[in-house]
Known about the structure:
InterPro entries: Endo/exonu/phosph_ase_sf, Endo/exonuclease/phosphatase. The protein is an alpha+beta fold. It is 36% helix and 21% strand.
Amino acid sequence: MRAQDPVVLFLAETWADEDRLAKLCDDLHFDEKWVVPRVTRAGGLALLWKNTVQITVDSSSFNYIDVIVNKGKDDSWRFTSMYGVPETGRKHETWDLLRTLDRKFSLPWLVAGDFNEILLSHEKFGEALRSEAAMRDFREVVDDCGLQDLGYVGKKYTWRGKRGDGMVLERLDRALATQAWLAMNPATQVQCIRSNVSDHYPIIVKPEGIVGRQGKLFRFEHMWLTESGCGDTVRKAWMTHMPYSSSQIVLEKIKLCEEKLMEWSKRSFGGVKKQIEEKSKLLERVEFAAAQGADLEAVRILRVEMNELLEKESLMWQQQARDLHLKSGDSNTRFFHNKASQRFRRNRIVGLLDESNSWCTDRS
């Protein structure tokens, strides 16, 4: 989530009072918020957003926050963040709510959040099969409201939980949209991203799609300083004899240091992003095994290892921010991600309009 730099953030089951959410809003550098208070110690919703997007809250309850984006303008649309009723016997309340909200406006509509239900049987793994009637009720309300599932990129199951001695995996979190909203944002993709601090994996809706990054120049990574081998590699490279003139030798030694550091980093770190991907896949397999009755201890160990890798990735984001005057010990990495992500957005082309005024994103 730190690397995504969202302009709007929806939080469900916050379990937090308004003062704590106000501090979170400030810490994450959001400008505005709308809070649905928790009941006793449970529940609670919050929508945070930046002033770069114009949002007008229309209504809210314990299960949703409904807003209009760019109200009164030609490109206005609607976003409803949802938290479905979890109790099986009360699921119909969520579907009734969606139908009521559908009748309020005719604007292009995006609905996203935790629906606490699955659409199809393959969206659950572990324990007993989901009731076909329960899934059919969800599918019917999606059809009645003219919505369609936006799919996902990344992890299929967005929630995992313990049931007895095993685990259950389900795709409870998703984004739905009307055809009118998709016509405004044809490149939209929904990404399920890593998180080991909650039983839910966050999803992020990307109207511009997911754009891959090009190769980058050599950059000294701050995380290398956490390993003693970094200094040894630089010293060994710098002491290497070179048959160059004094005017060339410094540049050649710098180049050699770059090469040796990259070789050392590949051996020592194996590419943090690659390690995270591999560890994430392994964790997913172990969670699947736990859902079939395997020991949960392996899940706990892998989550600890994942958190260590994510800390290293956080250091990489600090380096990419290029704001070296800030103290590296600053625990609020949100600033670093914001700066790096802003630079990335400025330096990319998402798509082109062809001669027929059609939006093209296919690189071929």
